[in-house]
Automatic annotation (TrEMBL):
The keyword Coiled coil does not apply. One of its GO terms (molecular function) is metal ion binding. Pfam families: 2OG-FeII_Oxy. This is Isopenicillin N synthase-like Fe(2+) 2OG dioxygenase domain-containing protein. Residues 13-44 form the Isopenicillin N synthase-like Fe(2+) 2OG dioxygenase domain. Coiled coil: none annotated. The keyword Iron applies. It comes from Clitoria ternatea (Butterfly pea). Keywords: Iron, Metal-binding, Vitamin C.
Length: 99
């Protein structure tokens, strides 16, 4: 589909919730007695929006864990990344209190 972008929604959820909801790896277990069913859903964010932790979920006890980024830059980074051993979510983490 033209103009469609795919990204792992669970990473987005982890960023928006400031790490309260953790992402998980997609895994499948083979079962010779039952069919496996996959369900696909689509979510489209405004490319001009900003992806960032929700302000009400950032507190002195739980400081910002992920940097803010424009959705367009997030999508570009996701598809053109050089991970150097990191997941894309790790590249979004704030390290040592820096943003």
């Amino acid at each position: 589909m033209a103009g469609m972008h795919a990204a792992y929604v669970e990473w987005t959820v982890q960023i928006v919730t400031n790490g309260i909801y953790r992402s998980n790896e997609h895994r499948a277990t083979v079962n010779s007695e039952m069919e496996r069913i996959s369900i696909t859903t689509f979510y489209g964010a405004d490319l001009e929006a900003t992806l960032a932790p929700t302000p009400s979920l950032v507190t002195p006890e739980r400081p910002t864990q992920f940097r803010s980024i424009g959705v367009k830059d997030h999508v570009k980074g996701f598809f053109s990344r050089d991970l150097q051993g990191k997941s894309y979510l790790d590249t979004m983490r704030i390290q040592d209190g820096s943003s």
